[in-house]
């Protein structure tokens, strides 16, 4: 029995699957540890099969050496694109970390094995909220669409310019720090002014022991102002999704 095999389609699908799998296991929201690796692999295979249908017709089979090199290149490309998305959405987690530090919640930090982060209450709360908003708002579809567009700029058998990715990585990290400060900046400023006011009260009237009553005051301020920031998270996640798409486009020639 003769079973015809389209080797061009098979090679193209394998190359697409390597890039998509590396991206899925690194980029949020797909990289969340509570999602079983088997589900991630099935998702990567499904996306790869759907994308390979458009890429296989123009694909020319490679020899063994070039094919192995292309596999490594697709792994690096997928990991790079996934890392850019992860850095972009780390701004929400970093903002939660700033709130924990200045609000006095950092002493209650714990390690979350699912998200692989070590933080206190607001760090984990903001991280989980950002992941939930990505799924409920359909932001993950935009991220997958950006991944699909990457195959137009960097074909499965093409090369990758290492200058632009380095520049985009530097820009992404700087923007992540800036976004975290912008998100948590007003709250951090209020908490700093509260500490400054308590210090002045202690200098004026040492018998009041202002720092003893400062803990509940700071906790109250943190909860009230963090609630305001939390209400604005949907808009923040929407803006970060747009930034992630721009980063996916910026890393490509």
Structural domain count: 1
Shape annotation: elongated
Structural class: mainly alpha
In round numbers, the mean pLDDT is: 78
The largest sheet has its strands arranged as: 1-2
DSSP E strands, number: 2
**H/E order of the elements?**
HHHEEHHHHH
Q: Beta-strand percentage?
A: under 5%
Gap between N and C termini: 46 Å
Largest sheet: 2 strands, antiparallel
Low-confidence stretches: none
Please tell me about this protein's structure.
By secondary structure, this protein is mostly helical. The protein has one domain (7-250). The protein is 75% helix and 2% strand. The chain is built from eight helices and two strands; from the N terminus they run αααββααααα. The chain has helices at 7-24, 37-55, 64-103, 121-136, 139-153, 163-204, 210-231, 233-250, and strands at residues 110-112, 117-119. Strands 1-2 form a two-stranded antiparallel ribbon. The longest helix has 42 residues, at 163-204. The protein is elongated, with a radius of gyration of 23 Å. The model has no long low-confidence stretch (mean pLDDT 78).
Structure summary:
The protein has 253 residues and is an all-alpha fold.
Secondary structure topology:
Blueprint: H1 7-24, H2 37-55, H3 64-103, E1 110-112, E2 117-119, H4 121-136, H5 139-153, H6 163-204, H7 210-231, H8 233-250
Antiparallel strand pairs: 1-2
Helix pairs in contact: 1-2, 1-3, 3-4, 3-6, 3-8, 4-8, 5-8, 6-7
């Amino acid at each position: 029995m003769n079973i015809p095999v389209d080797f061009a389609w098979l090679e193209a699908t394998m190359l697409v699957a390597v890039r998509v799998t590396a991206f899925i296991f690194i980029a949020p929201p797909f990289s969340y540890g509570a999602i079983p690796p088997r589900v991630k692999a099935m998702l990567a295979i499904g996306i790869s099969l759907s994308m390979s249908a458009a890429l296989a017709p123009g694909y020319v089979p490679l020899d063994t050496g070039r094919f192995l090199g292309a596999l490594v290149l697709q792994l690096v490309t997928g990991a790079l694109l996934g890392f850019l998305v992860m850095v972009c959405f780390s701004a929400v987690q970093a903002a939660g970390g700033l709130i924990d530090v200045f609000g006095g919640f950092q002493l209650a930090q714990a390690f979350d094995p699912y998200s692989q982060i070590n933080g206190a209450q607001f760090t984990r709360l903001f991280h989980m909220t950002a992941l939930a908003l990505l799924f409920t708002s359909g932001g993950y579809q935009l991220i997958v669409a950006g991944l699909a567009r990457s195959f137009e700029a960097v074909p499965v058998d093409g090369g990758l310019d290492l200058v632009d990715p380095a520049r985009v990585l530097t820009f992404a990290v700087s923007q992540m720090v800036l976004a975290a400060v912008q998100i948590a900046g007003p709250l951090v400023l209020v908490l700093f002014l509260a500490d400054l006011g308590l210090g002045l009260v202690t200098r004026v009237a040492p018998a009041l022991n202002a720092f003893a009553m400062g803990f509940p005051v700071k906790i109250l301020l943190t909860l009230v102002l963090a609630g305001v920031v939390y209400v604005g998270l949907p808009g923040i996640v929407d803006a970060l999704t747009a930034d992630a798409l721009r980063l996916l486009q910026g890393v490509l020639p």
